[in-house]
Write a structure and sequence with these properties.
Layout: E1 2-6, E2 9-12, E3 16-21, H1 22-25, H2 29-40, E4 44-46, E5 55-61, E6 67-73, H3 77-85
Parallel strand pairs: 4-6
Antiparallel strand pairs: 1-2, 3-5, 5-6
Length: 91
Amino acid sequence: MYLHLGQDTIVDTKDIVGIYDMDTSTISKWSREYLNKAEKEKRVVNVSFFDLPKSFIVCKDNKRDGQEIVYISPLSSQTLLRRSQESQIIT
């Protein structure tokens, strides 16, 4: 099954490692360092082009030997969680 993250981006739900709220997660020094490192390694995909980012989603990238890829989404972590639990998952 797939989860819509915003714009034209969907991910396979079995590849999702975690969904994080941008406001609360980026308070932590470790989270900021993780995001900075992922960006330097070109493992960040911004799907929040015109809107403020509200969450980031960490997924396994099977095309990169299981490395993690980070999606920056304009949708809140609560919205994504609700979609993942409801029938809004694309099958």
